[in-house]
């Protein structure tokens, strides 16, 4: 009977239950979930350090699973990447995020400086032959200026790519689309390789932010962040820090010269309607 499904999971700890859902089960249901519009996007504000204003937001995808509740991207992005479904899923995320950014701009949110939207790209998307054409087509469809979109590619994916594989990102960068080097510090780039990457922003991984929470902060941690910021600025890259959870971290990262920040201290990821309140 249908009614038994209603509270079958009600007594279970939702966390341990979620962990128990098999990879196989999730992988199997990804295509129908995409067709059935079970995915949605939350937006997390990106804050300018100099004055605390909001410069944009990162789009973070979630899966509203009919039986297992909301699943975070770490649960299904690797599976979608593995099966190739990341390409249509990523296409959907890009289009929806660009549409949303356009809506914010039309409503005048962000004032004189229009809000930007950041979208994560996985390696499969990076290597897809239609990336440039599709991105340009979506920007044109909604009339969003290229500069209001930033694509985030992890440091490890970018560093692994050779010059030929980086060409699409270079083309997009030339059109004015921002390119962010995501999770910087967790990959294995030698600093000299930064010069050849078509990036406009470096996103410093959360692990560095964590190190600044100590009393007193580890002097080596401070020097490392200071060094990365100064090298980035020399190369013309702006620096965004991830995972800022406390005012102390925010203060220290600002002193170290970081340009913008993202984290629970400012705002958690949330529905697009909440973003104007963060401005
Ligand atoms: P990411 O790109 O590094 O995104 C930042 C993650 O840190 C997000 O996790 C965000 O919710 C979380 N976060 C933000 N502020 C804080 C903080 O102050 N403290 C802590 N502890 N965490 C914070 P989320 O939403 O679970 O996303 C996880 C990863 O999934 C993302 O990491 C990104 O790599 C991937 N992802 C998300 N959406 C997409 C997408 O549309 N496409 C692709 N390819 N990957 C995506
Ligand atoms: Ca990201
Ligand atoms: Ca990141
Ligand atoms: Ca990360």
From TrEMBL:
Coiled coil: none
Domain of life: Bacteria
All copies of domain EAL, residue ranges: 23-279
Protein's name in the database: PAS domain S-box-containing protein/diguanylate cyclase (GGDEF) domain-containing protein
The organism of origin for this protein: Streptomyces aidingensis
Lineage: Bacteria, Bacillati, Actinomycetota, Actinomycetes, Kitasatosporales
């Amino acid at each position: 009977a249908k009614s038994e499904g209603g509270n079958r999971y009600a007594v279970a700890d939702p966390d341990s239950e979620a962990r128990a859902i098999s990879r196989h089960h999730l992988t199997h249901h990804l295509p129908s979930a995409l067709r059935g519009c079970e995915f949605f996007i939350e937006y997390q504000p990106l804050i300018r350090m100099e004055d605390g204003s909001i410069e944009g937001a990162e789009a973070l995808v979630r899966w509203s699973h009919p039986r297992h509740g909301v699943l975070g991207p770490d649960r299904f992005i690797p599976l979608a990447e593995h099966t190739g479904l990341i390409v249509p899923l990523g296409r959907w995320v890009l289009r929806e995020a660009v549409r949303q950014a356009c809506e914010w701009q039309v409503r005048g949110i962000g004032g004189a400086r229009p809000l930007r939207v950041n979208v994560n790209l996985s390696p499969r998307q990076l290597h897809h032959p239609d990336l440039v054409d599709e991105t340009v087509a979506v920007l044109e469809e909604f009339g969003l200026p290229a500069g209001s979109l930033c694509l985030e590619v992890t440091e490890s994916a970018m560093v692994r790519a050779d010059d030929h594989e980086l060409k699409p990102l270079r083309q997009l960068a030339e059109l004015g689309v921002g390119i962010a080097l995501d999770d910087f510090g967790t990959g294995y780039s030698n600093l000299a390789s930064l010069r050849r990457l078509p990036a406009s922003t470096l996103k410093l991984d959360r692990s560095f932010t964590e190190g600044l929470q100590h009393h007193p902060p580890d002097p080596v941690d401070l020097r490392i962040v200071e060094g990365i910021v100064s090298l980035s600025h020399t190369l013309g890259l702006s620096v965004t820090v991830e995972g800022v959870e406390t005012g102390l971290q925010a203060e220290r990262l600002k002193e170290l010269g970081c340009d913008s920040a993202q984290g629970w201290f400012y705002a958690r990821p949330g529905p697009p309607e909440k973003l104007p309140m963060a401005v």
